[in-house]
Amino acid sequence: MSKRFLLLLLQNILIFSLVCSQTKPIRSELSLLTDNDVFFSTDYYYSAGQEIAYKNYINPNSGFQDLLCKSDTTKLVLILRGGIKMFTPRKTGQTDIKKKDRPYAGYDYLNVGVVKFTKQNQGSAFNIEIGLVGTASGVDRIQSNWHEFWHLRPFYGWEGQISNEVVLNLNYSFLKAWQISKGFDIVNNSSITGGTGSNKLSQDFSFRLLRFNPLKESNFCGTVLGPSSNRKEFYLFGGIGLDYVISNIFLEGSLFENRISPLTYPAEPFVFRQNIGLMFSAPNWFCSAKINHLSKEVSEGLDHTYGSINLGFRF
Predict the structure, then answer these.
(1) Domain count, the chain
(2) Is residue 24 one of the residues assigned to a domain?
(3) Residue 149 lies in a domain
(4) 232 in a domain, yes or no?
(5) Can you tell me the distance from the alpha carbon of 251 to that of 238, in angstroms, rounded to the nearest whole number?
(6) Nearest to 28 by CA among 95, 79, 69, 90
(7) How confident is the prediction for the chain on average, in pLDDT?
(8) pLDDT tens digit string along 198-244?
(9) Range of the domain at 148
(10) pLDDT tens digits, 11-38
(11) Do 270 and 289 meet the contact criterion of CB atoms below 8 Å apart?
(12) By CB atoms within 10 Å of each CB, which of 52, 117, 169, 307 scores lowest?
């Protein structure tokens, strides 16, 4: 992990510990997620992403709870997300679009999801996402203005980005944890994603080591809300995952034949993922840092590593 990544993490932990020290009934959470590969002195492929999320504990006596489940013991958390993502080729200085190893793509999105836990260590999540790909997203202008403001090198080839498309995706995930010993467990996450943007099957196995709560009350799933008995967590986590990719709009363009992008590449059918990170969760705030590694997503590409920092406070 680079020194820049560690210093940024420690700085944000200190800020949040000073701001969010009070204790009060907790039903909601606001967080900010930052993804970037600049932590590792690279700037390509999944180059950057920003996401803001709002989570709210659903009261067991509410009509929404009655609509989704009949049991008062079931825990429901509503999650609203919005953000941007930026995908760029490796040779950003190359002016010939056809010589780039993947297309540019910008993405804006809004996501609405519900996490549902019927047992302490078993639950599910359902998400609906709508977004914009292409020049309509405005990500190309954001990237150009950012580099111009900081006098960074320009990126060439955004005119060849994936064409405009409205994305509608659905995702379902099943989660289950097995306690191996005190301070160590294994978490399964099986998911399916379908729609106009991404179609894939995913399987992940993660571990948690040190001090953590059951999934129903853990920041691992973003469910440290409501009448939790213990909101404190400090654990090392990591895992491996595999995606079986059926389609990927950020590489292959639209599923519709009448919407052709200037440059596309077939997506690799199997993408392997690894990650390792650290989570600290106090009663009123949390901070996590994670290193993500992906195998190549296109045949002409390379493996890719990027970092994630997630900060949030509860109220």
Answers:
(1) 1
(2) no
(3) yes
(4) yes
(5) 27
(6) 79
(7) 90
(8) 999 999 999 999 999 999 999 999 999 988 767 799 999 999 999 99
(9) 3-18+30-314
(10) 665 555 555 544 556 899 999 999 999 9
(11) no
(12) 52
Instruction: Name the residue among 54, 56, 8, 5 with its Cα closest to residue 31.
Output: 54
**Letter string b/e over residues 151-186, b meaning 16 or more CB atoms within 10 A of that residue's CB:** eeeebbbbebbbbebebebebebebebeeeeeeebe
pLDDT digits (tens, 9 = 90+) for 67-80: 666 666 789 999 99
Q: Report d(CA 46, CA 80) in Å as an integer.
A: 22
User: Which residues neighbour 272 within 8 Å (Cβ) at sequence distance 6 or greater?
Assistant: 240, 241, 242, 294, 295
